[in-house]
Amino acid sequence: MPAQIAEQNSAGRAFLETALDAALNFFYPPVCQLCGEERAGAREGYVGGQCWTGVRFVTAPFCDRCGLPYDGDILHPFRCANCEGEDFGFRFARSAVKANAMMLDVIHRYKYSHALWFEPFLADLLARQAQPALAGGAWDVIVPVPLHPLKMRQRQFNQAERLARCLGRLLRLPVNARAVQRVQFTETQTRLSRPERAANVSEAFAPRTGRDLHGQRVILVDDVMTTGATTSACARALRRAGAVDVCVWTVARGT
Prior knowledge:
The chain is 38% helix and 14% strand. The chain is α/β, with parallel strands linked by helices. Strands 1-6-5-2 form a 4-stranded parallel β-sheet, sandwiched between helices. A two-stranded antiparallel ribbon has the order 3-4. Helix 4 packs across helix 6 (159-171). The longest helix is centred in the first third of the chain and has 26 residues, at 2-27. The radius of gyration is 19 Å and the shape is globular. The chain starts with a helix and ends with a strand.
């Protein structure tokens, strides 16, 4: 009987996915939303095969602390100069792809223009790299980096939470989107130096009352990491909530 129920649930999910694809393709023509020429539908996140070649996955060598990718032949674990003297709140950070112009364009449109059709594409990139890397670890929960309530009202969704839930389904891990909260509204980090970024978000996050993470090992998820200031501040809040270990996974890695 359990096998029959599982089979029915699987068939139900397949039906819903097919129905969703059909609905999206009805409203959005199955064409790549980057070049406007190749055929690409909902399952591909509306990114065609040729544009896919613009993806640059993060592969070794990279800093074993912050995950910053490097060119060249480095055959042993190392830490980059940017990590010297840094006291990150997380144990290590990794990213799926390099934040080149194409990736930043997709993420910007996804976040700020409600281009949710890119979500399967972004979730797939994250899953391809994170799943094999995390498979052997005894992780307990996935936590997305929260938005400040004002930004949440402006955007109407938290991109980190949506990506975290995609990863959670794949890894069969629960997602706790209310473990920590963003208590300070901060302006964009893009124009700030590394020290300014750290200062800008140092007190931006706090544990939620009654959301105990005692003894849990946490995967913190966000869309982009550059200096690690935001994820580090959020990781410290998770540790104050009781987490004993925090790693970070993001879709893209800036430099």
